[in-house]
Amino acid sequence: MKRIVINILSYLKTLLWGVLLALAMQILYGFLEGIINYLLSSLIKGEFILIFLGQLTAMLIFGLILLLILNKFYKDIQLELFCMPNIKWVIFSLLILTGYLLVKNNSLDLILCFLPENPLFTKAMDKISHSDLSQFIFSVCISGPIVEEIAVRGIVLNRLLKKFNDAGAIILSALVFGIVHLDVQQGINAFIVGCILGYVYRHTRSILLCIILHILLNSYITLSYFYPHYIYQLNEWFDMRELIIGAAFLTFGLAINKTLQTESF
Prior knowledge:
The protein is an all-alpha fold. It has a domain at 80-263. It is built from eleven helices and no strands. Helix 6 packs antiparallel against helix 7 (166-179).
């Protein structure tokens, strides 16, 4: 009994560390972005150029700070930012993620829509969505995925894989990913996506692939937010064709994964 309590406390302590670390990195990047945009706003008039240079400068400074943090506190973590796995892993990842989205649209979303939304999260998203479109795209579709993947998969999951078994590490990192979204609906979806990305990272060690997948995912969500008629059928909550296609993608993805696991032995 004592050992069980100790293990539970260890999991909770690690989960808290992961959440605080991921939130701290998001706040740090947001602070850098805000300060740099403020400083550049008096020098640059074009909105798009201002946002692009602000994001780029913030990302470079964030990267330097990250290197200092890793060198000081996490010397055992090696981030291979530009490593890409073989094409089978890329195809597997795209099939699984696309299949999940198509199935989710016609199953999980029908349940999640009845769950309460965090008013703070909704207010924040409304504020971002009513800002300049280029600001929204850069924040949600580019810088957000980069910062979150480096934090959750690059640091948190990397550390967890050294402490727990693969399944435990992936689930814990996915919980971190879900919690930092600060919303029940978004958190449940983020947890499942976190399990997928965690599995991909565990077997490929490719932060770059996880970033690309995350960018594609957020781009899809952004498209569905601004142009829902391209994603959803009008007045139609359930689309059997989409569900079947999604299930087929998942099946093909699992078949490819089986060959990948066979090749690894």
